[in-house]
Amino acid sequence: MTPAPGPEPRPRALVLRALGLGDLLTAVPALRALRHRLPAHEIVLAAPERLTGPAKATGLVDRLLPATAPGRAVPGSLAWQGPGPDLAVDLHGNGPASHLLLRRLRPRRLLAYRHPGTPEIAGPRWREDEHERHRWCRLLRWYGIPADPGDLLLPRPAEASPAPGAAVVHPGADAAARRWPAHRFAAVARELRRSGLDVVVTAGADEGRLARRVAEDAGLAPTAVLGGRDDVPFGRLAALVAGARCVVVGDTGLAHLATALGAPSVVLFGPVSPRLWGPPEHARHRALWHPAGDDSPRPGDAHGDEPDERLLRITVGEVVEAVRALPEPHGESKAGGPPTVVTGTGGLP
Q: Do 175 and 320 share a domain, yes or no?
């Protein structure tokens, strides 16, 4: 007797986004569009293994394929098993390095921006002055996949917040150019504490010394610091942010987590314009930026080893007032468009 045929293998779509937490969260609208368009596919995300928790929390990814490279470079290879993917989507960049990495897997179809180095890919034209959420949604729309950059919210975490109603202060960033001075974060934390708010200082892996310094200078107990030696487990971090009264943070991953969870936030920008990486236009988000006449999208070096001059123009008093102007947290709502940006000449405190 001939055995009954087994079920057809599930088609697979591979998405390359081997970058950081903020990069993953700005790609949520594009991932959601792919999930809606490909309900029967297994969606595999090529990203750093540390993003397993955030990727799962989106509810849009079936499996994470670990992939990393130094800085924002393209991984040299992907540990893909079996036949090539039915679809490969390049959400990593717009150059031959990422295009050819995916082409080597022999996907049936590849979605990517066009580039002179890979003329066989007839994608849309890359734009430098474009917000990341809009960039990847425009790519998908060019290929006939409806995508809404405002469809960016994550489900609220089931885990209880370790500090409900607290002000979350996050002084870290992966480059000094986007790291506001520690003594200013401490001054903000001190003022928020004086106003009656509980304050929690969060830290990513290896940021413990910075977070402890901010907490100590602000007069907070050591227990006010979460993380530092390692990343805060994502479920706990998401619960903290979702239940926060506000989040005060630079241009880094935690800012995007606040956006994705609908938490009120004040985000401090320096070398890169908030119109490229800022929160959406909504009363619960305030993006502070002082370009002082140069409002080009990238007036500074985002990976520089000194705090950017535009970042240093943001004062302690300005941040405290921005926090006080935030509305009380409320339920989820759709949000899109450019961020609400407060600009001016600024000055040192």
A: yes
User: Which amino acid, 130?
Assistant: E
Name the one residue in this structure whose structure tokens are 């595999």. Answer: 44
Indicate whether 108 and 172 sit together in one domain: no
Residue type, 242: A
Per-residue pLDDT of the chain (349 residues; tens, 9 = 90+): 555 555 668 999 999 999 999 999 999 999 999 999 999 999 999 999 999 999 999 999 999 999 999 988 999 999 999 999 999 999 999 999 999 999 999 999 999 999 999 999 999 999 999 999 999 999 999 999 999 999 999 999 999 999 999 999 999 999 999 999 999 999 999 999 999 999 999 999 999 999 999 999 999 999 999 999 899 999 999 999 999 999 999 999 999 999 999 999 999 999 999 999 999 999 999 999 999 888 899 999 999 999 999 999 999 999 999 999 999 886 444 444 444 444 443 332 3
What range defines the domain where residue 251 resides? 167-342
d(CA 146, CA 55): 21
d(CA 326, CA 137): 29
Q: How far apart are CA 241 and CA 35, in angstroms?
A: 25
Q: What does DSSP say about strands 110-111 and 341-342: parallel, antiparallel, or unpaired?
A: unpaired
Q: Alpha helix (H) ranges present in 43-153?
A: 52-58, 96-103, 132-142
Give the end of a domain, one of 109, 142, 175.
142
CB of 261 closer than 8 Å to CB of 153: yes
Contact 129, 297 (CB under 8 A): yes
The residue among 108, 142, 176 that closes a domain is 142
CB of 224 closer than 8 Å to CB of 162: no
Q: Are 259 and 265 in contact (CB under 8 A)?
A: yes
Output the furthest CA–CA distance in the chain (Å, rounded). Answer: 84
* Rounded CA Rg of the chain: 21
